[in-house]
Amino acid sequence: MKLASIDVGLKRIGIAVCMDSKIVMPQHAILRKNRNQAAHDVKTFLDEWEIEQLVVGLPKDGSSSEEMERRIKHFVSLLKLDIPVAYQDEQGSSFEAKELTMGEFKHKRDGRLDSVAAKIILERFLQL
Q: In CATH, what number does 3-127 get?
């Protein structure tokens, strides 16, 4: 089954894919100008890769987790998907991504870190 995960942020959306239930690869993040453009770009990505299930990172137990959960679920509704969507706890994935990539690349705001976080989210989902 072809899986993808997204780490939805206010400025960037990290993306990772898994084609064989084993190896998860981060992809180029989508830079978010507005939610409709971002939703269109994510939907296009999912269609082009023929993704069969989407895993979405959701914050749990954070100070603003309820508001972010509402925003993320609204964003997912804009995708108008006809594939299953699963939600996975993303707690600490961005911090873990930063730790994993120390020294590999400069932490610019180009979305690479967001896509590594999406990779971590999808790996957590596959372990369940």
A: 3.30.420.140
